[in-house]
Amino acid sequence: MVNIITKSLESLIDKGLMVGYGIRTPEKWYIKEVRLLPQGRRVGRKLLGEQQTFPFKLRSNKK
Questions:
Q1: What integer pLDDT is reported at residue 34 of this predicted model?
Q2: pLDDT for residue 63
Q3: Which residues contact 52 (CB under 8 A, 6 or more apart)?
Q4: Cβ-based burial of 33 (10 A; exposed 0-12, middle 13-18, buried ≥19)
Q5: Which of 5, 10, 36, 61 is the most exposed place for a label (fewest CB within 10 A)?
Q6: Which H or E run contains 3?
Q7: Is residue 56 situated within a structural domain?
Q8: How far, in whole angstroms, is CA 47 from its chain's centroid?
Q9: Is residue 30 a part of any domain in this protein?
């Protein structure tokens, strides 16, 4: 699961939507912190307006 998240962050960094801070080795990125760039904020706002929300029913954890 960590690998999927890391690949997603790397793809957003490559697209210029985020800046990642950390250590890069020849094999792998060790990302410590990420920051959203203005273009990334614009894309995020646009997606929030376009994506449909699903009416999921959340189960309450009653004991």
A1: 92
A2: 59
A3: none
A4: exposed
A5: 61
A6: helix 2-14
A7: no
A8: 13
A9: yes
Task: Show pLDDT as tens, one digit a residue, over the chain (63 residues).
Answer: 678 888 888 899 999 999 999 998 888 878 899 999 999 999 988 888 887 777 777 776 665
What SS3 state is found at 28? Answer: coil
> For residue 14, is it within any domain?
yes
HEC letters along the chain: CHHHHHHHHHHHHHCCCEEEEEEECCCCEEEEEEEECHHHHHHHHHHHHHCCCCCCCCCCCCC
- The residue behind tokens 């690949």 is 7
Per the structure, the count of domains in the chain is 1
- Residue 17 pLDDT: 93
Domain assignment present for residue 7? The answer is: yes
As a whole number of angstroms, the distance between CA 39 and CA 56 comes to 31
The answer to whether 10 and 24 are in contact (CB under 8 A) is: no
